[in-house]
Amino acid sequence: MADAGTPVPSAVADAGTPVPPTPAVPWSTSEPPTAATAPGGPGPSDTPAPPAPYIPEPQVEPPVQDPEPAADDGGAASADTGAADPVRPPALPGPAGESAASALLGTTRDLFFAMTAPDAGTGFAPREAVDLPPGTLPVAREDEDDLQLSWALLDTATGRWTGSADADSTRTEAESTIKAWLAADTLRAAAEAQRPVTDDERADIAAAVRASDDSAAERLYRRAGREDATDRLAAECGVSVATSRPGWWSFTQISAVDAAAILACVRDRAPDWPGGSELLTDLASITPDGRSGIHGLLPGAVAEKNGWTRHGAGFWNVNCVLAWEGRALAVLTSYPAKRDVEFGWTACRDVASDVLAADGVRMTPDVLADGG
């Protein structure tokens, strides 16, 4: 785990109480929060609070700093990661009690084995998980104390999705999952200018995606015009997002449906832009410390971009996002900082195993157990 040191402005996260969005439509979830109501963001006459201490994701090189940070950046974060952290993770409410689907079908693992056992004789036919309404597919970790969990499974061909009850309504920090879009938007800009991707851009894309390098992502973000890059998600992918702290890419507020839709869009659109095949290779080749362990369970070419940050003495955010042929899955977690990052990866794998079983993907337990 890297020492906090002096952070890249956009690499620090500061959670607040998310603003519930309006109901979702395919590839889109909501109108973004306004500047006056966005969590952690300054209102018309508010003074922004300084960001909380944090531990960033591993970085290959020292972070880049503006000589004079903008006033709304909130200044530099304290390097004292043991200090009291007033920030608390967003509440991700889950269904109370046993869901109707749970009562009717039992656990998803029971259903999976009933569907696939050679001599089951139960009469069950395989059923796609996306046929189930949000909040009706039970997952093993959803009611666990101290674990706030939101997830979504998207059918990328139709825009249909299922997930937790709040999958399209509760937002949290994107963390490094947004780096996939910063990379893709760089390719889009090259295509618009009818030029090849430069060597510097290619190097930063590879570093930001494969190694989750914050400094490389910061350079991509600044070249793209900062929030202009995330604002373009609406036109390019049909996903409207906003940041809770202007100038900070990790503060981009996303729901689980947003996260799944963004990575699915990147996977789908990248081949249309120069350097797209290299980006897809990057998304399939992230370094071991950034893998959730879910990739090995999935069929065909898989894109993966996760995000993980410990917010000082407060809490972890661990977000796991993958896209493959016809599907995208996002699992967003928050939990107390006293636990380690592996707790988040394990939660992602446990949720994925339940969801994939219900979606008819034959799991490989040995791959799941060793992290893939």
Automatic annotation (TrEMBL):
<dbReference type="InterPro" id="IPR012338">
    <property type="entry name" value="Beta-lactam/transpept-like"/>
</dbReference>
<feature type="compositionally biased region" description="Low complexity">
    <location>
        <begin position="72"/>
        <end position="86"/>
    </location>
</feature>
<feature type="compositionally biased region" description="Low complexity">
    <location>
        <begin position="25"/>
        <end position="39"/>
    </location>
</feature>
<feature type="region of interest" description="Disordered">
    <location>
        <begin position="1"/>
        <end position="103"/>
    </location>
</feature>
<feature type="compositionally biased region" description="Pro residues">
    <location>
        <begin position="41"/>
        <end position="66"/>
    </location>
</feature>
<protein>
    <recommendedName>
        <fullName>Beta-lactamase enzyme family protein</fullName>
    </recommendedName>
</protein>
